[in-house]
């Protein structure tokens, strides 16, 4: 039996699914997670959510937002659940179910899922960029996730695009995320138009209506993102750059400019081989389960 459990710990819920090695979902469970949970009550819900799926599984993969320590398998803190601190996810699940357990941040899991089951699954080396509330990234080379020392690598959203630029959520000025993400678009729009927008859809609707401020913000943001990706391509030399996440729904509004700026600024020798495109919308649980399939390969 080569089935794996993927667990996606998100804002407000835990989703666990059992997958066949083909990526087919065989069974799943979902539990809401109230905001005010402490470690003990959270772990109880986590175990209860996973338990019904364990009979036919060869391992458990877990993904959650960071910061985390993937080696010790600890969620250091959670932005959505303030009561959680140094949560020993890996040890607790291993003890409870006697199965191997892997734990990575959700952007890395999404990258791995995309590399194993997405449109570009037949390429050898993938840089996956998540465009949503923020900007995340993951790098998968020959089926193996590069997650850095302790699992916090490829934080492409927090690489600098504009020295001394707009203030980012991380506390530093000029991150690419301050220029190209839902948070960035809304923040820049509020600054320049003195008006708060509700969400990314409203922002992109303004772009479609040729609102000059929204258009300018998107066009500068696209340049900022393109150069962050240029840097990453020169550092990592991926075969393909794959964009995933909510903002890719509006790819027709910026994709052409983004690709042409990347292509016109990277080394020609890389350009000849590099593929750039939009990925699928795979579930976070499938990404987490890919941790098991990937580790089985080693
Ligand atoms: Zn930042």
TrEMBL record:
Domain of life: Bacteria
Pfam families named among the record's database cross-references: ROK (PF00480)
Family designation: Belongs to the ROK (NagC/XylR) family.
Protein name: ROK family protein
Organism: Leptospira terpstrae serovar Hualin str. LT 11-33 = ATCC 700639
């Amino acid at each position: 039996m080569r089935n794996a459990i993927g667990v996606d710990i998100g804002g407000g819920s835990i989703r666990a699914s059992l997958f066949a090695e083909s990526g087919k979902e065989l069974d799943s469970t979902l539990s809401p997670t109230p905001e005010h949970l402490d470690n003990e009550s959270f772990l109880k819900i986590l175990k209860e959510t996973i338990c019904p799926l364990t009979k036919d599984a060869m391992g458990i993969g877990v993904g959650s937002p960071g910061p985390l320590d993937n080696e010790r398998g600890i969620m250091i803190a959670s932005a959505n659940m303030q009561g959680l601190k140094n949560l020993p996810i890996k040890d607790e699940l291993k003890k409870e179910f006697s199965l191997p357990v892997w734990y990575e941040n959700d952007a890395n899991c999404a990258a791995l899922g995309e590399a194993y089951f997405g449109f570009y699954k037949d390429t050898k080396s993938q840089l996956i960029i998540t465009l949503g509330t923020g900007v995340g990234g993951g790098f998968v080379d020959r089926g193996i996730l590069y997650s850095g020392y302790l699992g916090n690598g490829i934080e492409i959203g927090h690489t600098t695009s504009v020295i001394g630029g707009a203030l980012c959520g991380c506390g530093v000025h000029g991150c690419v995320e301050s220029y190209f993400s839902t948070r960035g678009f809304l923040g820049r729009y509020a600054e320049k138009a003195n008006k708060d927008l509700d969400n990314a859809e409203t922002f992109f609707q303004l772009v479609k209506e040729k609102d000059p401020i929204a258009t300018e913000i998107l066009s500068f943001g696209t340049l900022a993102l393109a150069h962050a990706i240029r840097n990453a391509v020169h550092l990592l030399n991926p075969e393909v750059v794959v964009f995933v996440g909510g903002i890719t729904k509006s790819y027709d509004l910026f994709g052409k400019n983004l690709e042409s700026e990347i292509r016109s600024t990277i080394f020609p020798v890389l350009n000849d081989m590099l593929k750039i495109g939009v990925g699928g919308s795979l579930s976070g649980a499938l990404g987490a389960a890919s941790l098991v399939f990937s580790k089985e390969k080693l």
